[in-house]
Amino acid sequence: RKLYSLQLFSTQRIREFQSDIISHEIHYLISDKLLQPVRDGPAVVNLTDCFNRLLENIICGIVLRQRPSQVMVDNSSSTGSVSLSQLMREVTDLLVSPMISDFVPWLGFMDYKLKASMMKWRSSFTTIVDHILAEHRRIDPQDVVASSTDCKSTRDIVDVFLLPENNLSRDMIQVRIAVSILSTT
Fold first, then answer.
1. Contact at 8 Å (CB) between 152 and 145?
2. What are the tens digits of pLDDT across the range 25-72?
3. From CA 92, how far away is CA 72, in angstroms rounded?
4. Is residue 29 helix, strand or coil?
């Protein structure tokens, strides 16, 4: 909690996020998603989907400085590449799927397909997080701070997690990224 409140969600950082990420994503939503049907003629726009994507883009922008659709890796355990936005949609489907063993414990063997899907999702998410951590480690967080004029303006949440003084393991970082990103679903 201290890590989030002191380094990421201070008043100054919220203003930076608002001027940088939030306003950019709102502009993207309005210009590319909402005004496009007007140019092409009357169309039905699913506002729920638009606002869900807006929220996902803002949260991922704060956590990773990228949109979830931009974070893609080749997954060896699946048929091709997987994106973070695809994983976010999949976890929503998995979370709302009822498990029979929750209601009738002795019928737990019937949950094998759902459990297999969860394991496949976990493997894909671990691959994505490893890719994100590798990208962030290529650019040392200390170098980012030293090279910027405003020492915290280019940091995202993953950069803060990787700072040596925070002393977080890979598994702890993975859990914190999952909680940060998947809280929007």
1. yes
2. 888 888 876 776 666 667 777 888 888 888 888 888 888 888 888 888
3. 19
4. helix
Cβ contacts of 58 within 8 Å, gap of 6 or more:
21, 22, 25
Structure-token pair, residue 109: 């063997």
What are the structure tokens assigned to 33, written together? 């998603």
Contact indicator for 109, 152 with CB cutoff of 8 Å:
no
Pairing status of strand 72-74 against strand 81-83: antiparallel
Residue 83, helix vs strand vs coil = strand
What's the pTM value of the predicted model, to 2 decimals? 0.73
Q: What is the pLDDT of residues 95-144, one digit of tens each?
A: 888 888 889 889 888 888 999 999 998 888 888 888 888 888 886 545 54
Quick one: tokens of 139? 């650019």
